[in-house]
Amino acid sequence: MLYARLRSAILRGEIAPGASTSQVALANQLGVSRTPLREALRMLEREGLVLSEPNRRARIAEFSTHDVQDLYVARVSMEAVAVRISVPTLTPDDFADIEGLLAQMDYFAARDDWQRAEAPHREFHSRLIAGAGGRVTAQLTQLAEHAMRYRFAYGQAEPDNWSTRRAEHRAIVDAAAANDPALTADRLVAHYARTALVVIAACAPDHTPHALLVAMQTVAPGSVCIIRHALVQSPAGRMLARASRGDNDEEV
């Protein structure tokens, strides 16, 4: 399907944010007619991934500090609830599958094959919230996919990124295996918040992520302590400290 093909290319960064082209040129490049292309672009526009321009041109949505913060505010707010619902429902078979997904991520990460590592990574997070119901998981899937654009572009901005993420995944699973929904939510939210803060610090170091901090304090209060300890004096950590002090946000 053309929509899925274009969407995947945008989310994986194969089509650069801000790229602009005419519908004619894009149709020729893809080897398709303009009618299905227009429908695909309309669907992508409704999703916020494409912007229409005059003269039948289309532009890929650019990265935005406020957009990535909005994504993660929504994601942590919903997923903290979803994981609390789901953890008590996880079975030994579920945990066996989750351990297998962790092993797959390790395998691909050891080979710097981040494209292939993404499939078990998405499935890992999906399994942790599967008990929350189809409508919730569908919305969270879209948020996760949109966040992927930023992770692929900025995900390696932090030294030892994979070892940090790996340890966070392990801690999340351990809390879930101990049947502690609140601790699982705290660790999951801290995991997402660290990613969001690292991305924001890389592209807009003067930004103050007040909304993200409010979301963390509201849905998973223990996550704030976890993330402060993890980030210490990094740029992302200093950004979190500004938000905690209530410093004014700067437009980016």
CATH domain class of the largest domain: Mainly Alpha
**Outline:** globular
The mean pLDDT is: 90
Q: What is the rounded distance between the termini?
A: 36 Å
Looking at CATH, the homologous superfamily of the largest domain is: GntR ligand-binding domain-like
Protein structure class: mainly alpha
Could you say what the CATH topology of the largest domain is called? Four Helix Bundle (Hemerythrin (Met), subunit A)
| CATH architecture annotation of the largest domain | Up-down Bundle
Number of helices: 12
Strands ordered across the widest β-sheet: 1-3-2
Describe the structure in your own words:
With 252 residues, the chain is mainly alpha-helical. It has twelve helices and three strands. A hairpin with a 3-residue loop joins strand 2 and strand 3 (57-60). Helix 4 packs parallel to helix 10 (210-219). It is globular. The two termini are 36 Å apart.
Structural topology:
Blueprint: H1 2-11, E1 20-22, H2 23-30, H3 34-46, E2 50-53, E3 57-60, H4 65-86, H5 92-110, H6 114-129, H7 134-154, H8 161-177, H9 181-203, H10 210-219, H11 222-231, H12 235-245
Antiparallel strand pairs: 1-3, 2-3
Helix pairs in contact: 1-3, 4-7, 4-9, 4-10, 5-6, 5-8, 8-9, 9-11, 9-12, 11-12
